[in-house]
Structure to design on (616 residues):
């Protein structure tokens, strides 16, 4: 096999209670990345369709992660990468992670899978470092593993795959504004009240238990963020209104996707997701801000090969 | 039934990563509490064997929790409580919780179980308030529910029962020193670094996952406390040496039980627990501090009726 095209999904990091730790993989949105073996050594990004991102392999997430992979294998050929970029950069649903994970997943397939998924996550983290300055793992992990993931530690890297509840639909609202990742990090306090931290880790523990117990009520009650959301929500116009609308109309939980500006809303069943989408659309249409909104599902399998 | 004797077990709160949230029930240590129906309304503590604690129902944990229960039921009789106190007050293994939980459990049995276990936890929390000033739930919850518990929230009260790993033995070292609960609370910072809090909630989430997955390695790696232990361990002589000795000799995890001074060490299998006990004993005998040490197991059923 000399050529492969993979679908590398968008993801939601943090999931309210689990800042920097929890992540969830999405089904219908993702980059399509084609990788060809080439006689020339190294990595080349030959095409980028959809968004105008750097083709420089050191700056592009897909390039940087692929370079990190190449450091760990001795081969006398290289790879050319074509990216059909579908995850909107800066939207907060793991755009750089999608590219970073996609290239290394595809290359690993072409090489006959010499690397474990944990190793692929490590390489993809280098793509994150190139794109946003920090080798974060909470988007690339669900992209590669699918479903819900928990980053236990980054050094050494240990990521857990958590069970998924059935019938979960996810509404993503993407207000068309730009939030710089740096700003969304800078707005956070360096220190947090111990009493708040206690509530947060009670929620993380409960969230994990809810997934194993298939307990939708507990899942819903655990999707609560008293640490990060109060700060970051200030950067997202009408966040509190959207959240209230979402919860009032039956959503299990609503929060900031990654560092925003996208807002996720998790619903049980398509009917519920449709209603929540309608109500959010109705509300957000009254504001002066352009937005995209769509319904997707939790993607339990993660990145996959499309062709061959 | 007019009389009942219950065994109300000792407990370990916090469990390293889960300050104020996680708890574990112990098997071989507990108060024996006898409750008799009396014609006289109200609660009377008629006897206290073992330790010289107040018989004042408003100050005694068993009395205060029983009074809290009585407020929620209309009866024209009362109860007399005899306590054979076996959990050393101030030892850090839930002494007040043992009494607080025991009385309300026993009374509920005599009344034909009008109250749920969650309601009993609420009443027992009032016993904790009487004994140590705060209505904490992380000891009374495992005492009443058994096994491992997670206090999701105290208002409204929601406590989760978590699965238990097989073959877990617990070594308890009780240095014969006194730490006032107030001191052990005061020594904690009001604010903690966000980066540390993130690590802590990653550990809590992983700990919960480890219990469901029956993953002893992950269980062990999650028993890690970077928030509270660095402060409280200063109040416990030779804590770091005991911990190192414990881990060097195969313990899965070692930490401060509740607010100390007891130190717990969780081992897989009795052989491992015996070895850890020997090594800790060997070490602590070289210090000038008196101590008790014993091996017990995780108690999966919690409080139980002994007679009738």
């Amino acid at each position: 096999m000399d050529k492969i095209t993979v679908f590398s999904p968008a993801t939601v990091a943090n999931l309210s209670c689990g800042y920097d730790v929890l992540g969830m993989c999405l089904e219908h949105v993702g980059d399509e990345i084609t990788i060809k073996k080439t006689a020339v050594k190294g990595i080349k990004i030959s095409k980028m369709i959809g968004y105008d991102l750097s083709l420089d392999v050191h700056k592009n997430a897909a390039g940087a992660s692929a370079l990190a992979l190449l450091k760990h294998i001795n081969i006398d050929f290289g790879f050319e990468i074509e990216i059909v970029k579908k995850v909107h950069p800066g939207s907060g649903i793991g755009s750089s992670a999608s590219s970073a994970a996609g290239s290394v997943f595809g290359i690993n397939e072409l090489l006959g899978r010499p690397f474990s998924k944990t190793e692929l996550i490590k390489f993809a983290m280098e793509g994150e470092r190139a794109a946003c300055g920090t080798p974060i793992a909470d988007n690339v992990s669900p992209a590669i593993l699918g479903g819900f993931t928990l980053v236990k530690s980054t050094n050494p890297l240990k990521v857990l795959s958590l069970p998924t509840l059935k019938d979960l639909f996810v509404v993503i609202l993407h207000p068309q504004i730009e939030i710089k990742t740096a700003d969304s990090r800078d707005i956070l306090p360096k220190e947090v009240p111990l009493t708040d931290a206690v509530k947060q880790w009670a929620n993380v523990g409960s969230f994990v238990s809810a997934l194993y117990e298939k307990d939708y009520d507990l899942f819903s009650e655990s999707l609560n963020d008293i640490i990060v959301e109060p700060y970051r929500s200030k950067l997202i116009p009408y966040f509190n209104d959207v959240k209230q609308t979402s919860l009032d109309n039956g959503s299990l939980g609503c929060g900031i996707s990654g560092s925003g500006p996208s807002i996720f809303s998790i619903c049980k069943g398509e009917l519920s997701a449709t209603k929540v989408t309608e109500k959010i659309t109705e509300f957000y249409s009254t504001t002066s801000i352009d937005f995209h909104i769509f319904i997707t599902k939790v993607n339990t399998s993660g990145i996959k090969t499309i062709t061959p």
Notes: Chain A has two domains: 3-162+300-307, 168-297. The CA atoms of residues 79 and 210 of chain A lie 42 Å apart. The mean pLDDT of chain A is 96.
